[in-house]
Amino acid sequence: MKKINWAIQAVLFYLFTFIVAAFPRSQTNRIGRYVGTFLYNILHSRRSIALDNISQALPFMKRHPAWTGAFETAEEIALATFKNLGISIVEICRLYHGKGDVLIDTIDVVGQENLFSAREKHNGIIFVGGHCGNWELMSLSLKKLFNENVYAIVRPQNNPYLNKLVEKIRMNYGNKVIYKAAALRPILSIIKNNGSIGMLVDQAMFEDNGVLIEFLGRKAWANKAPAIIAHKTGVPLVPVFIHRADNRHVLTIHPEYALRGDRTDDGIGGDIQALSRYLEEFICTHPADWYWVHRRWKRAGEQI
């Protein structure tokens, strides 16, 4: 029975993406905002998580030098976040059905010289980012923009049929995936062969695999793997983020992050704290472009 349910879910997912992708590109934002508003109204638990997260982070954000003042309340940011997520869903449907090239052409790149500089080391690259803007588009676009085959580290879908469908679509754009379980060995192998890894490091970690940092004014567990791997291999850590700008996207590539050279726990923690500052600045500049709907601060003194 479970396999039948999985198959039905995969078919419904495919039909949904096919129907949405069939609409004209000019309708992407309008349909996406409707989708996002609909999700905002029906996903009560996720909306509550977003509102709680934003409410607690807002005082810190308003004091941050990067704060733009585009929003005043948590409710405004939460609704705008869901609308952006809705637009991203529509865009991803188009990506999944072979209409991605036109969408990728809407990306303006800032800092591409930083990528070229890191690539000159011939030691692979770890792109360090977060669930910002349309992060799926960012990952898939790197092949067309820079001929970078990026291995994304992902958690497999519980539905194996759906997982195969999503994986196949990602690979159509030249990307490959590494599943989180036992990911270290393939990561080291890819880096050794001058490959590229994409790591979204803005989700709560367990204590064994994380380091406790300050994030948007509160304690949070962060993934310490990027700093550990960089110390071990010398691979450049390049922060990257994408945000929505009207009908276009802006992909920002920062200069390689320079490790502190301290391999102790305190040193690793300092590197991860420094890397988190890039994300903090992004969120304060583009508050509706971050994925507020997950419990980023859980297990760090916050209610799960």
Question: What would your notes on this structure say?
Answer:
Helix content is 51%, strand content 16%. With 304 residues, it is an alpha/beta fold. The protein has one domain (2-289). Strands 1-9-8-2-5-3-4 form a seven-stranded mixed beta sheet, with helices on both faces. It has a two-stranded antiparallel ribbon with strand order 6-7. β6 (210-215) and β7 (218-223) form a beta hairpin. The model has no long low-confidence stretch (mean pLDDT 90).
| Helix amount | 40-55%
Average predicted local confidence, pLDDT: 90
Q: What's the number of domains?
A: 1
Radius of gyration: 19 Å
Shape: globular
Structural class: alpha/beta
Catalogue the unreliable spans: none
Number of helical runs?
Answer: 11
Strand content: 15-25%
Write the layout of secondary structure elements.
Layout: H1 2-22, H2 28-42, H3 44-63, H4 74-96, H5 100-104, E1 107-110, H6 112-119, E2 125-129, H7 135-146, E3 150-154, H8 160-171, E4 176-179, H9 184-192, E5 196-200, E6 210-215, E7 218-223, H10 225-233, E8 237-245, E9 248-253, H11 265-285
Parallel strand pairs: 1-9, 2-5, 2-8, 3-4, 3-5
Antiparallel strand pairs: 6-7, 8-9
Helix pairs in contact: 1-4, 1-8, 2-4, 3-4
Structure summary:
The protein is of the alpha/beta class and 304 residues long. It contains eleven helices and nine strands.
Characteristics of this structure?
single chain, 304 residues, alpha/beta, seven-stranded mixed β-sheet, two-stranded antiparallel ribbon
